[in-house]
Amino acid sequence: MIFCGCDVGSTAGKVVLMEDNKILGSSIVPSSAISEHTSHNAFVEATKENGIKLEDVAFTVGTGYGRAVIPFSNKNVSEISCHGLGAFWCNPAIKTIVDIGGQDCKVIRIDDTGKVIDFVMNDKCAAGTGRFLMEIAKAIGYTVEDLGTLSLKAEEAFEISAACSVFATSEVMNLRKQKKPIEGICAGLNLSVAKRCQALVNKVGLAPKFIVSGGVSKNQGVTYYLEQVLEEKILPIDVDPQLMGAIGAALFAKRAYEKQDSGKARRRRDK
Amino acid sequence: MITCGCDVGSRACKVVILDGDKIIGTAIVPVSEDSAESAERGLKAALENAGIKKEDIANTVGTGYGDIEVPFANKMLPDMTCHAKGAFTVNPKVRTVIEIGGIDSKAFTVTDTGAVDKFSRNEKCAAGTGLFLEQIAEVLELKVEDLGRVSLEQTEELKITNQCSVFVLSEVISLVALKKTVPNIVAGIHAGVANRIISMVVRLSPEGEYMLSGGLAKNAGVCKELEDRLEIKLADSSTDPQLLCALGAAVLAQQ
Questions:
Q1: What own/partner pairs with CB < 8 Å and gap ≥ 24 does B24-31 have?
Q2: Closest by CA position to A148, among listed A63, A245, A60, A215
Q3: Distance from CA of residue B83 to its chain's centroid?
Q4: From residue A243, how far is each of A190, A213, B26 by CA, in Å?
Q5: Tell me, what's the ipTM?
Q6: Residue A141 CB neighbours (<10 A)
Q7: Among A33, A125, A177, beta carbon nearest to B164
Q8: How far is B9 from B68, CA to CA, in rounded Å?
Q9: pLDDT digits over B6-40, tens only?
Q10: A contact test, residue of B164, B169, B170 with most A CBs within 10 A
């Protein structure tokens, strides 16, 4: 029985296909302006090698920013619950998830069963999100990927005093004009994101073990500084952390299918 | 006595030369990275405008944003002090001053002698600042000084849901894609700016007349939104509102 989780985020669409607790296929594709297309592209990409067709999927759960318009989903679940369950599946020792996405940042606390017990979110301001890094990278002519790799070569991180993305952009442009090394600037930007996340973590508390999920988790500069400011190591996991929401969605699909199925069986019995 | 006020802001340097209670020279020049150079350039333009020499000025007060430098100033004063004095000088009934600067915005109450009483300031976030409006104008292919005029052609009330400048810019692009008209979008933006300012103003429990100081006072759209939402009438300024801070500095230079 194949279950599908589809996470349509602001920046990327993710699909995970699972059977018997194993991942059969997965994908990460850039988001298009139309969420339906994003989910479709992600599904096609995830089935390229395994030949799975839509009709082979028993149940699909949609999640993320664009979850309401995924044409092939049977049910929607909030990304907070999905990240929680996904992380629990990866390793039951995980109690805190810092999810840094393209347009928001969340800190999620889960219990011993993967259920969300507390969370805090910033979706009002681009500071501390992938968007902050994207905006500034664009302004100085680098890619978001560069920010991570260059940051690791920095001798020191230049502190960016402005939290606001707009003001930070001007600040970074000035640092560039002063011919400050790009590595230190990138490190400063990653440190800034880490500090914003730290402020959110402080609101709900950090229960070890913790992981970072979402697209920004791939920026090694951000994860490095997050470990520094939180004084806690990130638990290594063996799946791509950007898939966490989609994994959780696929697990929810299985649950929903089983519930639906037992409901059907019960109804049959009652007849 | 001839005095001079020099206000180096984040976007423009403003200079007022005052002879008694008469303004004899003014200048508004764009700022460069070098605040001292900008101030000198502003002074030169104002001196030419007044037709006097630097030596004719008895005293100069400098002001502006952050740690700027006005090399020829005899004294430096906080910008809010100068805004308050300037607004009070043109209209002694003013008790509340709102200033939307290039990279900050503030609201403060003024005592019956023209000094700052209570204040509220946003300098952490670009939303509701001149820089934010500049970015919006750029996306809509307008000049920032045209935003006010354009917004008055509004036919539909649009609610801008985001606060963060970065997210608002994306929202504006989607609104354009949804075929919303530019005047309606700009008016929605102005309403958002006005709401940000109002949240600062209400904290001050203000009384008396209101005046908008600074370059944004020339934006009729923002003025209208502020007036409608606060249910007030903004006091007129006989002097260019962008010069009020420099005027206040020149008045304070007399004392």
A1: B24/B50, B24/B52, B25/B49, B25/B50, B25/B51, B25/B52, B26/B240, B26/B243, B26/B246, B28/B240, B28/B242, B28/B243
A2: A215
A3: 9
A4: 21, 8, 61
A5: 0.81
A6: 9
A7: A125
A8: 9
A9: 999 888 999 999 999 999 999 999 998 888 999 99
A10: B164
- Please state, in angstroms and rounded to a whole number, the distance separating the CA atoms of residues A67 and A77: 8
B199 touches chain A (CB under 8 A): no
The mean per-residue pLDDT over the stretch A140-154 comes to 92
Whole-angstrom distance, CA of residue B80 vs CA of residue B64: 9
Amino acid at A5: G
| Residue B213 contacts A, CB cutoff 8 Å | no
* Residues comprising chain B, all counted: 255
- List the single best residue of A105, A123, A125 to mutate versus B (max B Cβ within 10 A): A125
Interface of B with A in 39-78 (CB under 8 A): none
Q: pLDDT for A12-52, tens place per residue?
A: 999 999 999 999 999 999 998 888 999 999 999 999 999 99
- Name A119's bridge partners: A108
Mean pLDDT of B159-186: 93
3-state secondary structure A117-130: EEEEEECCCCCCCH
- Evaluate whether A242 touches A214 at the Cβ level (below 8 Å): yes
Task: Kindly report whether the peptide bond that precedes residue A209 is cis, defined as omega within 30 degrees of 0.
Answer: yes
Which pair of tokens denotes residue B103?
Answer: 């990279």
Q: Report the distance separating Cα A36 and Cα A103, nearest Å.
A: 19
User: Is A126 in CB contact (< 8 Å) with chain B?
Assistant: yes
Q: Which residues does chain B have within 8 Å of residue A124's beta carbon, measured at their own beta carbons?
A: 162-164
The closest alpha carbon to A101, from A81, A75, A79, belongs to A79
Residue A64, both tokens: 């993320």
pLDDT score for A97: 97
Longest dimension (CA), chain A: 79
Helix ranges (DSSP H) in A104-181: 130-139, 144-151, 165-177
CA distances from B252 to A230, B45, B211 (A): 50, 21, 19
- Using the predicted structure, report yes or no on whether residue A220 has a pLDDT greater than 90: yes
Across chain A, mean pLDDT equals: 94
**A1 touches A260 (CB < 8 A):** no
Confidence at B82, pLDDT banded by 50, 70, 90: very high
The Cα of A137 is separated from the nearest Cα of chain B by a number of Å equal to: 14
Residues 6+ apart with CB under 8 A from B109: B95, B96, B97, B116, B117, B118, B119, B204, B206, B207
- pLDDT tens column, A169-185: 989 998 998 899 999 99
Angle A229-A233-A237 from CA coordinates, rounded to 5°: 135
pLDDT interval class at A261 (50, 70, 90): confident
